[in-house]
Specification:
Order of helices and strands: HHHHHHHHHHHHHHHHH
CATH topology of the largest domain: Hypothetical protein af1432
Radius of gyration: 19 Å
Largest sheet: none
Shape: globular
CATH architecture of the largest domain: Orthogonal Bundle
CATH class of the largest domain: Mainly Alpha
Distance between the termini: 43 Å
Low-confidence stretches: none
Helix content: 55-70%
CATH superfamily of the largest domain: Hypothetical protein af1432
């Protein structure tokens, strides 16, 4: 296995104890899992409790009334969604983020990640609320591979070499440079990460096929297409460019040939200004 990739995998942060207990309970209980059992585990962790309540009341979910108790969170989102969001939330806050090896300002990068997640949620909040809720963990962690790659590059002293390669190709194809250093790109790595941390299989497969949604199974094909289109809109460096917006529209049209219909009007309505200006319908 690629040396840098192996080092990245070896340094993956463990899940917090409460999240591991929740994961083990849900996965081992199967159809016998109980809402109260989930609430009992989470309630022992005030930080996780607060995070889940904040997320449940965020634009990600768009509930019309305030969610004030864990019972409401679990009942409204569903046990699997709560488990997946708890894992995603703990990972997002579990390590230092520094994307300077990519030539990016970390705060701007995180802001773009947040807008990316908001966009995905808003796109489906009216037409497919269930899909929007399922994809929240994917949206939260879409750039996790970049964050982990960047950390390993810094620790290995290869950050300047990596950045020099990105500059050499004018930042036009970060996947090619990632492949050169790691043997795969950060989106492909995301599928591995979701499997490593034992997210639900639907999410593992959804992320595994972001770069080739046409090859996904029927169960997750719409998820994979939604993530692929969102990536084109917000991809670092090229997100929202004329070329990327052509690709985004092509993906939406390709999905339609496979009986997957997206709300194109809503998509265009909520696009960031730069992406909207470059969209040629």
């Amino acid at each position: 296995m690629n040396e840098l990739l192996l080092k990245t995998i070896d340094n993956l942060p463990p899940l917090p104890e409460t999240v591991m207990k929740l994961q083990q309970y849900v996965d081992s209980s199967g159809s016998e899992v109980q809402v109260q059992g989930v609430v009992d585990i989470i309630s022992k962790d005030p930080l996780l409790t607060g995070d889940l309540l904040r997320l449940a009341n965020s634009p990600y979910y768009g509930f019309s009334r305030e969610i004030s108790t864990l019972n409401q969170v679990v009942s409204l989102l569903g046990i699997s969604n709560v488990k997946n969001v708890a894992i995603a939330n703990s990972l997002r806050s579990g390590f230092k983020i520094d994307v300077s090896p990519y030539g990016l300002d970390t705060q701007e990068f995180l802001g773009n990640c947040s807008r990316e997640a908001d966009f995905l949620s808003e796109w489906f909040s009216q037409s497919d609320k269930k899909l929007a809720q399922v994809l929240v963990p994917c949206a939260m962690l879409l750039r996790l591979g970049m964050m982990l790659f960047a950390n390993t590059l810094i620790q290995s002293g290869k950050d300047k070499e990596f950045l020099a390669q990105l500059k050499a190709n004018n930042f036009t194809d970060i996947g090619a440079v990632e492949n050169e250093f790691y043997g795969l790109d950060h989106l492909t790595f995301l599928g591995f990460l979701f499997d490593h941390w034992k997210f639900d299989e639907v999410l593992i497969q959804s992320t595994a096929y972001i770069t080739m949604p046409h090859a996904a199974s029927d169960e997750v094909k719409k998820n994979a297409y939604a993530l692929a289109v969102t990536n084109k809109v917000f991809e670092p460096y090229q997100g929202g460019s004329v070329y990327n917006m052509e690709d985004a529209l092509a993906l939406i049209k390709e999905a339609k040939t496979q009986n997957i219909n997206f709300d194109l009007n809503r998509f265009m309505e909520i696009l960031p200004p730069n992406a909207k200006a470059n969209l040629k319908v």
